[in-house]
Amino acid sequence: MARILILGGTGETGSWFARYFKSKGWEVAIWGPSGKVEVAERLGVRYAHDMMAEVEESDVVLVSVLIEKTVEVIRQVAPRMHSGSLIMDVTSVKSGPVRAMKTYAPKGVEALGTHPMFGPTMPSLFGQTIIFTPVEGKTGKWLGVIKSLFESDGARIEILEAEEHDKTMAVVQALTHFAYISIGAALKALDFDVQRSHRFMSPVYEIMIDFVGRILDQNPELYASIQMNPKAAAARQAFVAECMRLCEKTDSGDMEGFKQMMREAALHYGGTHEALQRSDRVINSWIREKKEEGKR
User: Fold this and answer.
1) Radius of gyration of the chain (CA)
2) Residue 33 — φ and ψ, nearest 5°?
3) Which helix (H) or strand (E) holds 201?
């Protein structure tokens, strides 16, 4: 039975992994900067009152603190870990943490950058994607152990280098969240009655507006930290620039220019018809669910 310490285990993501590893029979301890011992009691795991002593004795140290604190926590704890152990992080930015683990983990200590592509509301790993960013010179037995563990519960593991990960996540996460939050902010600026508007929405637009609400329901601190991805600024600037370009064309009555921008975007996107078919399945499933609710 492996012994794992989760730093930031009193937070939502850390608590999710505490429950997960406990369910796998691991000996779990958690620590958090807020010192919420009651979280450990609720989870049925130990609270690490002496965090550094626990670091020294753990087989795995999982870092689940805020992105802006991750590198500093790694710098503090990695040198104290024993040979044969593993340090891993679960933050959404990988370049800094991977560099820090490579720099500060002593000889014999393995390191693994990890990014679970799901939030703590998910009930299980089944069907979820987890990205691994292995650390050069710090990869050994633990990569296979953790990979097999997650895959046994139905997760899909993808391997990326840290720089490629951050470039991809600048769009997959930072840009999409930025766009959804921008729509939410625009609804506020317009003083738009979202709840009343549901009466007039088609299923596709109700699903879209629900995704805006889904993002707005999350922890703002987490979503602000995701925007700290070093590659995200360029993605945000491109988004704002294209919004302005599209706005200028419509405001000036240049409908041909508007249509050309849409055609060019569709050509670059590729597979738009397949996307239409997939989204149709989501919409039809939503309609069936609404019908079932009406029968109850």
Assistant:
1) 22
2) -65, -20
3) none
